[in-house]
């Protein structure tokens, strides 16, 4: 007699590899009744533009096994029971080595998303030919609004930062984070160490704070942040990671770290509420219409 099948498990083709996914009806975002199956569907559809932003980078995940209203945890090491085919790299940051997964294709992305990995975080550098971190190939600034501030204030700061970054020969790209604020990415030639890039970003943060003390703060000190935007330069430190463009976020709704146009940011700076975080469905529609607005931040 044939063995009974488990209706909670389904075999799918993920980039040419047959994978078993499970619990597709499980609700991950209760507020919108978004299921695990819909999460996997989003990642399958967004993969063509997401994968280039993950390529070559060790991936840290934030897992939500019971959905966004349950416990969650960061995971750097390979998940328990990871298959042999899953690409990986082992790095020693301090005293203990960590083996990270590398997301090189839809199969790896689907495998990790099936483990309720909603968020994918990566550093600003790739793994070099020697198996070690190369020099960073992009600069990133995280604009984090404090209490009483929001995306309008972030938009104003983003426009100020764009002017300074362009003066340095960089071409920044805005990305609403899917959480509270936004990031700015700018491609780099990969010729300077992370410490050098972090110093440039910190200097920019200090200059903007001095020029706009009622709007910008460069220190994380909580008491300094109400009504202001924290210009987080430290994301460029080699050990730090940032949410990848096109990653879902573990927020009440399925918001996504979404690349935006500067026209949208300009409108957001002058009109309250004009710029808002966008959902997975909206991002899929935007990519279909606009392509990858963050493509210019990819390594050259």
Keywords:
Alpha-Beta Plaits; 6-stranded mixed β-sheet; 18 strands; DNA primase, PRIM domain; 6 helices; 28% helix; alpha+beta
What does this structure look like?
This protein is α+β, with helices and mostly antiparallel strands and 300 residues long. The chain has 2 domains: 9-122, DNA primase, PRIM domain; 138-297, Alpha-Beta Plaits (2-Layer Sandwich). The protein has helices at 36-54, 106-114, 151-167, 194-211, 262-270, 280-290; strands at residues 9-14, 17-22, 27-29, 34-35, 60-63, 73-75, 88-92, 97-101, 117-122, 138-145, 173-176, 182-187, 216-217, 229-232, 242-243, 255-256, 258-259, 278-279. The protein has a 6-stranded mixed sheet, with helices on one face. Strand 7 (88-92) and strand 8 form a beta hairpin. The termini are far apart.
Order of helices and strands: EEEEHEEEEHEEHEEHEEEEEHEH
What name does CATH use for the topology of the largest domain?
Alpha-Beta Plaits
Work out the count of structural domains: 2
Q: What is the annotated CATH architecture of the largest domain? A: 2-Layer Sandwich
Write down how many β-strands occur, each being a DSSP E stretch of 2 or more residues: 18
Which structural class fits the helix and strand makeup? Answer: alpha+beta
Q: What is the CA-atom radius of gyration, in angstroms?
A: 20 Å
Largest sheet strand order: 13-14-10-12-11-17
**CATH class category name of the largest domain:** Alpha Beta
Point out poorly predicted stretches: 1-5
DSSP strand (E) fraction? 15-25%
* Fraction of helical residues: 25-40%
